[in-house]
Design brief:
This protein is 64% helix and 0% strand. It contains 45 helices and no strands.
């Protein structure tokens, strides 16, 4: 029965507490019971008969059945029909009306069928209103239906007599509750005859007898205060205090509402004092709101009995209490912030979120927190007080573990918080410090295993970015005590936070105002990376500074989406002082000279024409980043600055220097190649921007430096030769470099036609065997060395060696100290073996490095081929690209090289509209012959297509310059076709078919 009572309580009083929610529920029911859109049949509204029979009785039964329908429209239509049938026109006889009241309406309130209580109470409220309201039908037409008699009908029909089940008993008490509410809804209780006194006593008796109805009784009484005058309100509060309900949540709500309506009324001296303001008695208020009792300093006779059941919804009194503080904020009441802070601490933090609070009360606390956050803008400066110590602790504890009882409530609280910031981004600067500072923790996401701070930082706008970064910096600087570990954690997290904020900015969006990046974000990273701050105690460690330097470079990488981003590193370089970087006089002079040069370049860029701005901007960018490398301690930075000075003098100032015989473009290319040889996304972007700006100045020698990279081997030996590295002593340089590359993603260009490089599959078996033999020899040699070391340590001999015939159990005679020494020796041997370089892994790493390096070089060549298609030097790239396609073991390199040839051919067609460039016909013919020779070295179909595209590209350039050169071109194709036909070389027929198609297209042109 206890379980039934609990369920009925949940369905009963709380159902009418919030009418809007009831309507929402009914809306759901209505949607569930949706009917086809058919015009409803009008209901019969004729007067009811006193003794209905047949069709009249059937009509009456149908109307009352509709009155209990779950469909709100059906209920309202039926209610109108019943009211019209009873009171419409002249109205029915008194006996008929009494029969309907007694046997239908009041009796139906005790029914648990569908929505009978809702429908019947609506009709009753209207009938009671007409009987005892302005029409006063009880005196004029129905004198026998006095107020006492009608109320008696309610009491009699809702009295649980006989042998009733627990559910039936609850239905009767709920019927009484709904009936009393109908009297209040009729608005006829507050005349001179004091009808309200009778109804009030019934409410109080019901609330005390069945505590689970108390909340709804309190809700109705609170609403009735709007119909009372001051004397009636005073009487009501006295009766509530006498009944012992003043110290209940309902009592608090009634007192607050009465005080708002009648500020000058006389309040009972207990329990809320003569002012009648519960907010002035926080400890007592806290106990009342959580429905707890205590022996300390309280009169048990004044305390309300606990309801005995738990409701998963917040009590209505919280809305009234919070509304008081919201009104105080709007009225700018002095001290409202401290008042709210004290209230929240006592009534919420120390009650609902105390260490001893039940899970149910903590759940209420989370609901209350969500309610405040949802209306955050109304609380203004009061909002930070909500993030109290116990609440934040409980929030963190329950959100970090999914198996915690209140995990979902805590998680929803954070989701509500994020939704509030999404709806009003201005709240971010108020909420963020409450989570990562105050009672929260700077690494909130790590502790809670969530991404809430990350999501909040994603909502940073241009207007709030500076304030948010300042908050992050302030909290990273203010570390209590000398907790170095905490300080380091906060500062390292600061670097991550600022970088994430920058990365969320779309730099290409010109509508945004991102000045805060230059003014706040980047200077913050630079200050912690290179500067000193007296407020920063303890001072940042070298590890922290290194992290900030990395984050700064990553920020540049994001901001340099195009060359226009050059202003970020240039402006930052000139705006701060690297006083934390130790520099000798030579380095300092180099730095000062570089910054001076940057100033000069930027001045030139302002005056330059739009066409000549790019080289100046690119060189300024390059200078700035090299200076930052100097700050980072890069050993080659000073020499790179010297090389940049040479490029500046020759390519920009066009001035002869001591190294006048040096090709500045080759110096620049070598510098760019050194950049892209490093695994840095920033250097890769910078290299592409700079190369794109200076590619018109690149000479044949500069291009040769780039194509030389493509010719180097994809192995450890190739890496050492390319970077002038000396092999280690005894290192086997003949190890096969054709091992399978599992670290590089490989995708076939055309799965149906096979690999672009047929030799890959042909050589796999042989290379695999040689690799196994080489690695096997290495393993045997390593095993011999290990055995020899162990034998020397143990004082034994290797198998097959002659021994001294020592006793095999000689180790039994070793002392403990000797055993310890032996153990240390064995540890040393195995540690040395573990630290020894793995040749196989070195080969693998070297191959990956070379493949990546070549890929970045191809990116530069692709830029050149697309933008310099009319430059005769571009044709010099074709042969190296074909050789790379043929020789590389990395399919992605072969595909990229092939795509460059196709892009070159496409760009060349567009370039011909701008005019025919001067080309050397004899050199172009030699190039075609070399391409044909290259095509004969690999019979694969896809390689033939690449070679054919390159050959026809050169042929088209010759034809555009001189149509008579087609004979020379045809001769080359004829000779190649003859050698193919005679079997001297192996080539694809498609190579010559493409030539025929080319001839046909030009013949028809």
């Amino acid at each position: 029965m206890g379980q039934k009572r609990k369920r009925a309580a949940k369905d009963g009083p709380s159902a009418e507490q919030n009418p809007k929610k009831q309507q929402k529920t009914e809306g759901k029911v209505e949607k569930r019971a949706a009917k086809p859109t058919v015009e409803p049949t009008p209901l019969d509204t004729s007067p009811f008969l006193d003794n209905p029979k047949g069709s009249d009785l059937k009509r009456e039964v149908q109307l009352y059945d509709l009155l209990s329908s779950e469909d709100i429209e059906d209920r309202l239509n039926a209610a109108n029909a019943v009211l019209a049938g009873l009171l419409g026109g002249e109205g029915v006889e008194e006996s008929a009306l009494q029969r309907h009241l007694e046997r239908r309406l009041f009796r139906g309130l005790a029914s648990g069928r569908k929505c009978a209580r809702l429908g019947f109470s609506v009709v009753l409220a209207e009938i009671i209103g007409q009987l005892f309201g302005t029409k006063n039908l009880a005196e004029t037409k129905y004198p026998g239906l006095t107020f006492e008699k009608v109320l008696g009908f309610l009491i009699a029909k809702t009295k649980p007599d006989g042998d009733l089940s627990g559910q039936e008993e609850k239905d009767h008490f709920l019927g009484l509750l709904f009936g009393l509410e109908s009297f209040v809804g009729a608005k006829i209780l507050f005349g001179e005859d004091n009808k309200w006194n009778t109804i009030l006593q019934k409410f109080l008796e019901l609330a005390k007898k069945k505590p689970w109805t108390r909340e709804q009784c309190g809700w109705v009484i609170t609403g009735a205060l709007s119909q009372m005058d001051q004397s009636q309100a005073e009487y009501t509060l006295e009766q509530i205090q006498t009944a012992g309900l003043a110290l209940s949540p309902e009592g608090v709500g009634i007192w607050i509402t009465a005080r708002n309506r009648f500020p000058d009324m006389k309040f009972p001296s207990k329990p809320w004092g003569s002012s009648g303001n519960p907010l002035e008695h926080l400890k007592t208020l806290g106990k009342a709101l959580k429905e707890s009792s205590s022996d300390e300093g309280s009169d048990k006779s004044q305390q309300a009995k606990q309801t005995g059941n738990w409701n998963a919804k917040l009590h209505f009194v919280w809305n009234l209490v919070l509304a008081q503080y919201i009104a105080g904020v709007k009225a700018k009441v002095h001290g409202i912030k401290s008042d709210f802070e004290n209230f929240w601490k006592v009534a919420v933090d120390e009650n609902l979120f105390s260490a001893t609070a039940s899970r149910e009360r903590k759940f209420w606390g989370f609901l209350l927190f969500q309610k405040v956050i949802e209306a955050a803008t109304s609380y203004g400066k009061l909002l930070p007080s909500v993030f109290s110590h116990n609440l934040v602790r409980c929030l963190i504890n329950h959100v970090q573990e999914k198996d915690r009882f209140l995990h979902r409530a805590a998680d929803k609280s954070l989701k509500v918080l994020i939704s509030a910031v999404e709806a009003n981004p201005k709240l971010l600067v108020t909420i963020l410090p409450c989570l990562i500072g105050g009672h929260g923790t700077y690494n909130f996401d790590r502790v809670t295993k969530t991404k809430n701070i990350e999501r909040l930082l994603n909502l940073v706008g241009d207007s709030s970015a500076t304030a948010v970064i300042n908050i992050l910096v302030e909290l990273a600087l203010s570390v209590s005590g000398d907790d170095i570990k905490e300080a380091e954690m906060r500062r390292q997290m600061l670097g991550d936070y600022v970088l994430n904020i920058i990365r969320k900015v779309n730099i290409t969006d010109e509508s945004r105002n991102v000045d805060w990046i230059k003014e706040t974000a980047l200077p913050t990273l630079a200050k912690f990376a290179y500067g000193e701050d007296s407020k920063c105690k303890p001072a940042p460690s070298n590890k922290t500074r290194t992290i900030f330097r990395t984050r700064l470079m990553s920020s540049f990488g994001h901001l340099l989406s195009d060359l226009q981003g050059y202003t970020y590193p240039c402006d930052l370089l000139r705006s701060f002082s690297p006083n934390a970087v130790e520099m000798d006089e030579g380095i300092s002079d180099a730095k000062d000279s570089a910054i001076s040069t940057v100033e000069k370049i930027l001045k030139r860029a302002k005056k330059a024409s739009p066409e000549s701005k790019a080289p100046l901007q690119a060189l300024a960018l390059l200078y700035s980043l090299v200076v930052f490398q100097l700050y980072n301690g890069e050993p080659e930075a000073v020499s790179i600055l010297d090389e940049l000075k040479l490029c500046y003098d020759k390519l920009i100032r066009h001035k002869d220097t001591e190294d006048s015989d040096v090709d500045a473009s080759e110096v620049l290319v070598e510098l760019l190649l050194s950049f892209i040889s490093k695994p840095s996304a920033l250097l890769r972007k910078v290299t592409q921007h700079v190369f794109g700006a200076f590619m018109g100045d690149i000479t044949a020698g500069g291009l040769q430096l780039m194509t030389n990279v493509l010719e180097s081997g994809e192995s450890l030996r190739g890496q050492q030769e390319l970077f002038d590295q000396e092999p280690e002593d005894g290192e086997n340089m003949d190890v096969d470099d054709d091992e399978e590359d599992s670290d590089v993603e490989v995708v076939d260009m055309d799965g149906d036609e096979g690999h672009l490089n047929g030799h890959l599959d042909d050589d796999n078996d042989e290379s695999g065997e040689s690799e196994d033999e080489a690695s096997g020899d290495e393993e045997d040699e390593d095993a011999k060395k290990l055995n020899l070391a162990l034998a020397q340590a143990l004082g034994t001999h290797l198998p097959g060696q002659d021994g001294d015939g020592d006793d095999e159990d000689s180790d039994a005679d070793m002392t403990d100290s000797e055993m310890m020494q032996l153990d240390a020796k064995l540890v040393e041997i195995f540690s040395a073996r573990k630290k020894a370089p793995n040749k196989k892994q070195e080969q693998k790493d070297a191959k990956e490095t070379m493949v990546n390096f070549k890929g970045r070089v191809l990116d530069l060549l692709e830029i050149y081929a697309k933008k310099q298609a009319s430059n005769p030097l571009a044709f010099g790239l074709l042969l190296p690209l074909l050789q790379l396609i043929r020789t590389t073991k990395a399919k992605q390199l072969a595909e990229k090289a092939h795509n460059i040839i196709l892009a070159f051919a496409k760009a060349s067609k567009s370039a011909k509209k701008d005019g025919v460039s001067e080309i050397n016909s004899s050199e172009q013919i030699k190039l075609i012959k070399a391409i044909h020779l290259e095509a004969s070295k690999d019979p694969s179909h896809l390689f033939a297509r690449a070679a054919s595209s390159a050959s026809l590209l050169v042929a088209s350039s010759l034809y555009r310059a001189d149509k008579g050169s087609v004979k020379k071109i045809a001769t080359v194709y004829r000779d190649s076709q003859v050698t193919w036909l005679e079997g001297e070389v192996k080539m694809q027929a498609a190579f010559f078919v493409d030539w025929v198609n080319w001839c046909q297209s030009h013949a028809n042109a």
